[in-house]
Design brief:
alpha+beta, Ubiquitin-like (UB roll), Uridine Diphospho-n-acetylenolpyruvylglucosamine Reductase, domain 2, Uridine Diphospho-n-acetylenolpyruvylglucosamine Reductase, domain 3, five-stranded mixed β-sheet, five-stranded antiparallel β-sheet, 17 helices, globular, iron ion binding, metal-binding, 2Fe-2S-bd_dom_sf, EC 1.17.1.4, FAD binding
Length: 484
């Protein structure tokens, strides 16, 4: 059984189909049809809902953290122990919520199909910021598409509803909601079971290891932003899933003198602060990683584990010399991330083995790390090319070189020939040009609808040139914002 709050109503579910998304649960099982399906792939934001989770700060203060999610990519099992809020829940005692009033008064809605999703993104923004600036508003709304009204009035609604906000019914009920979330906090393995399909929800790494050993055919579910597409886009059935999002040990971020250890189930939005503090370019890239709804849901371990050749984080982590810890039963092994990827969607992971955490070296003064993403849109788009450069230059000579790319091969990988040309050489234009030529030996990219093979290779070479120019003239640095 799993339990969660539907606004303030306790829901206990056991026999539901584990392949059921939150979107379809709302629309078909509880009659809340305000949440819309636009794309069923997490691109349009029409299905946005907000999930509340109990959070304890370092000072011991308890509060509810509200996050916007794409309900079309969220399986119901991930709600275990949480609160689900849909657009119908905002109206209170016959009065519209302040974010809804702002959308009306600022003329932010026309056909209305996308409006519930925008309202829920604005609600989450209001809850998480006292006075969001223009950039925060853009970030919160980047995952919501409007096809008729335009965004200026919607941004005006964001400003009106979030600046000088007043307490609402959720604030008034916070203590009660905290108490109710505590009462349903999971204490044992949860399960949804429809007879022929099941999803198990462990609470510890040990439980996860035991379950995965017992069900090696199971699909591991973290954020689900990739896995759910198999159901919503390809109409496949997932007979057995194991949801790892309630394993607290795999959602920790721990800092050590020489490294940061990030649990594999840590949401990308939670990774931002730690990675941005060490490597600002990593932080910049995370701002361009899909949408806020996806970053609130997708995990760093999932972005590695799905072994996509165009995943944004692996090239950066490879260039930084990151490692992963793989767990199987009581056995753990540490593997360099670059050795994890073998071929297209093929990895070094053994049966019943899972990624427990990612180890990222701390930044040093000698490192010169930069990352660049080339895509057709600045926000919410997949890379055509993702490049990461990490050189150590001492007395004008390159003493260490790590160059990695995504989108250039069947796997994210280092550019070995390019690195060999750079290593031990002076960091000057002539050497960089030879290294650009060597990239042609490292990669034979494919042509697809994102870019031709010629464009990809030229882009990779130009990004290396860009990296060199920016390090020589840091005042013109543009960092990760390259796009076509």
């Amino acid at each position: 059984m799993i339990q969660f709050l539907l606004n303030q109503e306790l829901r206990s579910e056991h026999a539901l189909d584990p392949n059921l998304t939150v979107l379809n649960y709302l629309r078909e099982h509880v009659g809340k049809s305000g949440t819309k399906e636009g794309c069923a792939s997490g691109d349009c934001g029409a299905c946005t809902v907000v999930v509340g989770e109990l959070q304890t700060d370092d000072d011991g203060r308890e509060h509810i953290r509200y996050r916007s999610l794409n309900s079309c990519l969220t399986f119901v099992s991930s709600l275990h122990g949480k609160q689900l809020i849909s657009v119908e829940d905002l109206k209170h005692k016959g009065e519209l919520h302040s974010v809804q009033k702002a959308m009306v008064e600022c003329h932010g809605s026309q056909c209305g199909f996308c409006t519930p999703g925008f309202v829920m993104s604005l609600f989450a923004l209001q809850k998480n910021s006292d006075a969001p600036d223009h950039a925060k508003a853009h970030e919160a709304l980047a995952g919501n598409l409007c096809r008729c009204t335009g965004y200026r009035p919607i941004l005006a609604a964001a400003e009106q509803s979030c600046c000088g906000k007043q307490p609402d019914q959720f604030d008034a009920r916070e203590a009660e909601t905290i108490s109710r979330l505590k009462a349903i906090a999971p204490t044992s393995i949860g399960e949804l079971n429809s007879g022929d399909k099941r999803c198990l929800v462990p609470l510890t790494v040990a439980d996860l290891a035991d379950l995965y050993d017992a069900y090696p055919q199971a699909r591991l579910l973290a954020g689900g932003t990739d896995l759910a597409l198999e159901v919503t886009q390809f109409h496949r059935t997932l007979p057995v899933m194991i949801y790892v999002g309630n394993v607290a040990e795999m959602k920790r971020i721990e800092h050590f003198d020489d490294r940061i250890e990030i649990g594999a189930a840590t949401a990308l939005s939670d990774c931002y602060e730690a990675l941005n503090a060490e490597y600002p370019d990593f932080g910049e890239l995370l701002h361009r990683f899909a949408s806020l709804q996806i970053r609130n849901q997708g995990t760093l371990g999932g972005n590695i584990g799905n072994a996509s050749p165009i995943g944004d984080s692996p090239p950066l982590l490879i260039a930084l010399g990151a490692q992963i810890v793989l767990c199987k039963g009581e056995t753990r092994r540490t593997l360099a991330l670059e050795d994890y990827f073998i071929d297209y969607r093929v990895t070094a992971r053994q049966e019943s083995e899972f990624i427990e955490k990612i180890i990222v070296p701390r930044a040093t003064a000698e490192q010169r790390f930069r990352a660049y993403k080339v895509s057709k849109r600045l926000d919410d788009d997949i890379s055509a090319v993702c490049a990461a450069f990490n050189l150590r230059v001492e007395n004008g000579v390159i003493t260490d070189a790590r160059v990695a790319f995504g989108g250039m091969a069947a796997i994210p990988k280092r550019a070995a020939h390019c690195e060999a040309v750079l290593l031990g050489q002076p960091f000057n234009n002539a050497v960089v040009e030879r290294a650009c030529t060597a990239l042609g030996e490292d990669f034979t990219p494919l042509s697809d609808f994102r870019a031709s093979k010629e464009y990809r290779l030229l882009s990779a070479q130009n990004l290396l040139r860009k990296y060199f120019i920016e390090l020589q003239t840091p005042h013109i640095e543009t960092r990760v914002t390259a796009y076509v």
